[in-house]
Amino acid sequence: MRQLAYILMTLLMLAAAPVSAQEKHVAMRLVAEGSARPGATVTLAIDARPAPGWHGYWQNPGDAGIETTAKWAIPSGWSAGPLRYPVPERLVVAGLMNFVYERPFTLLADLSVPASATAGQTVAVRVHLDYLVCTRELCVPENQDVSTTITTGTAVPDAGTRAAFDHWRRALPKPLGSPATYQIDNGRFRLSVPYPQAAALGEGWFYPLAEGAIAYAAPQSVVRDGDRLVIDTQASPKPKNGQVVGVLATGDGQGFLISATRGVVSPARGGSGGGWMGAALIAFAGAVLGGLLLNVMPCVFPILSLKALSLARGGVGAREARGEALAYTAGVVVVCLGLGGAILALRAGGSAVGWAFQLQDPVVVAVLLILCVAIALNLSGAFEFATPRFAGESGAGGAFATGALAAFVATPCTGPFMAAALGAALVLPWPAALAVFGGLGLGLALPFLLVGFVPALRARLPRPGAWMTTLRRLLALPMWLTAAALGWLLARQLGSSGWPLALLAAGATAAVLWWGGRRQAQGQAFGTSAMVGLALVAVATATFAHSVPVAAAGATVPLGAERFSEARLAQLRASGRPVFAYFTADWCLTCKVNEKVAIETTTAADAFRRGNVAVLVGNWTDGDPALGRFIEKHNRAGVPLYLWYSPGTDARVLPQVLTPGILASLPSGH
Question: What range does the record give for the signal peptide (predicted)?
Answer without folding.
Answer: 1-21
